[in-house]
């Protein structure tokens, strides 16, 4: 997929991995719609990048449909979707106050897994209706999982389950979308210097970085973005989940 001149959608685009990805796509000439549950932040980020910003609750079909319609009105139909929206709740199944709230577990699944699926199903429905490009391709999707999908830590039951679901559905959805000329891949990032980790003291950040074999530092959002862009551009990369973690393997805690 040629990025330049192509309409792209990025969720969770107001900050962190999503914003870095939106910036990388825009730098390549894409017409980027930055979608985020925080409408004001999405619009501010879009202003900085020369894109379009809109509110979007990825798990709400009506909200997604409205965001896709608004983005298409500005940039035309999108052929690129990058799913970066996500949340995390660090809670033990059996904590000091008793069992983990089912609502807490359900919220993480709703945003991270159902939200990713909701974006895929609605965005690719529009892509499938487009005329194929010269190579037969109609669209590309990149989703975000986590190394927690493989080595979830204590307190990450909900998060690991949600990201494990994103990994598990990558291949079957890619196989299904192949009939429409749409590719789908997933990135499983390790420890990245996102706003959440940036808020930690420097010694805490250094401690986390020491667990990474090489390079012994936290990942940079632009490195995630570079892989996302490569997945869009490399036409033979399909149905794959790629770890981006510096050879990190998470310990129990």
TrEMBL record:
* InterPro entries named among the record's database cross-references: KR_dom, NAD(P)-bd_dom_sf, Sc_DH/Rdtase_CS, SDR_fam
Q: Name the protein family.
A: Belongs to the short-chain dehydrogenases/reductases (SDR) family.
Protein's organism? Rhodoblastus sphagnicola
Q: What is this protein called?
A: 3-hydroxyacyl-CoA dehydrogenase
Q: Which domain of life is it from?
A: Bacteria
Keywords recorded for this protein, A-Z: Oxidoreductase
SUPFAM superfamilies in UniProt: NAD(P)-binding Rossmann-fold domains
Q: Does the keyword Magnesium apply?
A: no
């Amino acid at each position: 997929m040629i990025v330049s001149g192509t309409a792209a959608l990025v969720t969770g685009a107001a900050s962190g991995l999503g914003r870095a990805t939106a910036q990388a796509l825009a730098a390549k000439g894409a017409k980027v719609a930055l979608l985020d549950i925080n409408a004001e932040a999405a619009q501010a980020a879009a202003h900085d990048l020369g894109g379009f910003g809109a509110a979007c609750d990825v798990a709400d079909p009506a909200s997604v449909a409205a965001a896709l319609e608004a983005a298409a009105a500005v940039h035309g139909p999108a052929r690129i979707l990058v799913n970066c929206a996500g949340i995390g709740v660090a809670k033990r199944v059996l904590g000091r106050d008793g069992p983990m709230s089912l609502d807490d577990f359900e919220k993480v699944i709703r945003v991270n897994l159902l939200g990713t699926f909701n974006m895929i199903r609605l965005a690719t429905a529009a892509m499938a209706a487009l005329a194929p490009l010269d190579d037969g391709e109609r669209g590309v999707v990149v989703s975000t999982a986590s190394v927690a999908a493989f080595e979830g830590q204590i307190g990450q039951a909900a998060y690991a389950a949600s990201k494990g679901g994103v990994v598990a559905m990558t291949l079957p959805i890619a196989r299904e979308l192949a009939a429409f000329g749409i590719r789908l891949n997933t990135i499983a990032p390790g420890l990245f210097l996102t706003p959440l980790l940036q808020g930690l003291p420097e010694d805490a950040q250094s401690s986390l970085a020491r667990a990474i074999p090489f390079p012994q530092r936290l990942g940079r959002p632009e490195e995630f973005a570079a892989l996302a862009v490569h997945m869009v551009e490399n036409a033979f990369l399909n149905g794959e989940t790629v770890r981006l973690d510096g050879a990190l393997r998470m310990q129990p805690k």
